[in-house]
Amino acid sequence: TQNPFTRILKTLEKPGDGEYGKYYSLPSLNDSRIDRLPFSIRILLESAIRNCDEFQVTVKDVDKILDWQNTSPKKVEIPFKPARVLLQDATPGNEGSSSDGESEGGHDEEAAVTPIRQGSSRVKKQPAWMKDYHTNFAEEDMMALYSALDDHDFTGVPTIVDLAGMRNAMHKLGGDPSKINPLVPVDLVIDHSVQVDVSRSENALQANIEIELERNKERYSFLKWGAIAFDNMLVVPPELGLFTRVIFNTDDMLYSDTVFGTDSHTSMINGLGVAGWGVGGIEAEAAMLGQAMSMVLPGVVGFELSGSLKDGVTATDLVLTVAKMLRQHGVVGNFVEFYGKGMSEISLPDRANIANMSPEYGATMGFFPVDHVTLQYLKMTGRSDNTVKPWIKTSLGPGSRVVTKYLEKSGLLRYLQQLGFHIVGYGCTTCIGNSGDLDEPVASAIADNDIVAVAVLSGKRNFEGRIHPLTRANYLASPPIVVAYALAGTVDIDFETEPIGLGKNKMKIFLRDIWPSSEEVAEIVQSNLLPGMFKSVYETITEGHPTWNELHLPSSRLYVWDPNSTYIHEPPNLKDISMSPPGPQSVNDAYYLVNLGDSITTDHISPGGNIHKDSPAAKYLMELGVDRKDFNSYGSRRGNDEVMVRGTFANIRLVNKLLEGEVGPKTIHTPSGEKLSVYDAAMGVKAVIAKSFERIHRSNLVGMGIIPLCFQPGEDADTLELTGYE
Fold first, then answer.
1. Any idea what the Cα angle at residue 483 is, between residues 482 and 489, rounded to 5°?
2. Which pLDDT value is given to residue 87?
3. What is the C-alpha to C-alpha distance for residues 90 and 535, in angstroms, rounded to an integer?
4. Contact of 192 with 428, CB cutoff 8 Å
């Protein structure tokens, strides 16, 4: 069907001669409502107009977005088609712990924008933050960024497993299997498999690379096969860094970049003016195959920034303060859009860090519209011993090889290495739970004495037991504060009044004595962070390690399943698929499986870290002859459904009320009353009843045919006096 909005399709001319491409011009709609739309909503509008086919996206859907001030408070649904998908090698969906219940901030009957500012009324016209930007850029300056779907290798493996299974199913049904391909660009970045097996050593990086490639050889061969077998798919080899990046469109059509990523860190891209957020694997697959995602048209909360940071206040301080304010205000399920004169004082990496925390404050996006800071960044990055107590394990796992280049040039890497912070690999290591084993005497001391071990991380996720199963207390801090705690050897310290160590003459050294001024930091960054560093790294982004390049690949576009594989397993739901779906089935005699409290995270439901030696997954692997040292992680085995079902609720810190105080991944089987692992007690979950759901978990349940039900406001299992045995 012809797009009904071709009348507003314009050409962006090049100065002199030629053209950059065509784009849908929103001002050409001549609709005054556009001026009242936040920038983040305008991106949804442009996407709906561009994809309007009167089937998946209709003119009525476009009008809902245009009438956002009236329709958003009514929670109307709209279809959204991202331009790209990002897959990774780790988590199955959003890792955030925030609930997706009702925002306490609510909505004004006359507007869905709620600025956070003392004494201000809710907006009934164009929000102030749009005025700050609208006059700064001509329409031609807002060069559209390209959209695609990105993924990491933990979620990437099961996604490609599904695609491979679909091809086999298509072949069995007599169809053309080569037609099974992603319909939007997909980037799969292998950045979640590196583990800190070796640390505090000059050889740590090379040793960890070799161990990683050997440990994951089968998975990596499968991923490399997928990159060749499927159209529209790019696989970035391991050890080249994290997944967050921007691709610019050079084709004929220009449009704003929009992205779905199978990781909560996807929202980091909002700091670059790119609209995108984390989704579950099921939603990602649907987007890959060209389906529009149905979403509630969100409200937008404006956050005004003013002034600048004082000396000694780090970007992490700002990030955590913003997250705290937004949690207190209530922004669940909304977009947050930043504006104000203070925007010019916030660097793009700091913006990305604020946006990266959106799962923690409950928003779908923490959006920074494009301005001069964005454009400057794009230019700059080249677009066009013995065990003692306390015992400390240190590691440095940058997200990009660029970090190594500027740390070396500035002379900082040498000093970090002297403190034990050797580079262990490039990617999501500690944050995803790949921090490696503790020395056995240390691990035994923690377990035997019930010690509350502590981890300090310059990342964004601090769930209990996430960094390591034995670290119950996990704190987020800026990189220099992480180093300071390592120097002090404890987190039980007041940096203002207590020294972090003693100097050569046994003189007390305080943190303030070694803390640089903001001017010093700015000068070091200016002289050592150079565009050429980004260019040299990203020009070789698809060139892998020699071991990766030598991996043997099957030549067939149909995958040949190995029945003995413990990593890659043909999806059981696609093995015997027929042209007719089986239809609904009744639910009879259903009982509680588990009764859980608040703040249940992805890590509790489906852990991505190490496989405990006494777990059902460990038992399964050992029965197949896998040694304990080769268990790898749950995330690395997400291509095998047999491991994943055994990993459900396998977190060793799970608190199930049916166990009356006992901590661990067990439950009481009904009606026998026997205490079993959750896996052994499960007969198939048909519904989840909760006070509220995190957005991605709720959509994953729906995608798997499990109904997410909510208690009435003010009610829960306790107020209704439910025991779990009804």
1. 90
2. 85
3. 27
4. yes
Instruction: Give residue 12's pLDDT.
Output: 82
| Measured torsion, CA atoms of residues 219, 650, 93, 575, in degrees rounded to the nearest 10 | 60
**Per-residue model confidence (pLDDT) at position 161:** 92
CA angle 637, 643, 647 (to 5 degrees): 105
The dihedral over CA atoms of 477, 478, 479, 484, expressed in degrees to the nearest 10, equals: -60
| Pairwise CA distance, residues 223 & 11, whole Å | 39
For position 95, what pLDDT does the model report? 40
Contact 453, 471 (CB under 8 A): yes
Give the pLDDT score at 354. Answer: 93
pLDDT at residue number 687: 92
**Is the peptide bond preceding residue 616 cis, with omega within 30 degrees of 0?**
no
Residue 579 CB neighbour total at 10 angstroms: 6
pLDDT at residue 570 in the model: 93
Tokens of 478: 């800026």
Q: Cα 638 from chain centroid?
A: 16
Angstrom distance (rounded) from CA 401 to CA 422: 14
Contact assessment for residue 187 and residue 236, using Cβ atoms and an 8 Å cutoff = yes
Element holding 641 (H helix, E strand): helix 641-647
Bridge partners for 24 per DSSP: 9
Omega of the bond leading into 390 within 30 degrees of 0 (cis): yes
- Residue 595, C-beta contacts closer than 8 angstroms, at least 6 positions apart: 656, 657, 658, 717, 722, 724
Q: Are 4 and 52 in contact (CB under 8 A)?
A: yes
What does the pLDDT read at residue 241? 59
Give the pLDDT confidence score for residue 40 in this predicted structure.
96
Residue numbers in the chain where pLDDT is lower than 70? 89-155, 192, 239-251, 383-388, 390, 461, 463, 465
DSSP string, 58-124: -HHHHHHHHTHHHHGGGT-EEEE--SEEEEESS-SS-------S--TT---SS-SB--B-TTPPPPS
CA distance 693 to 97: 10
Residues with Cβ within 8 Å of residue 427, at least 6 apart in sequence: 190, 191, 192, 193, 194, 238, 239, 241, 242, 397, 399
Which ranges constitute the DSSP H helices of 173-216? 204-215
Tell me the pTM: 0.70
What's the token pair of residue 302?
């404006």
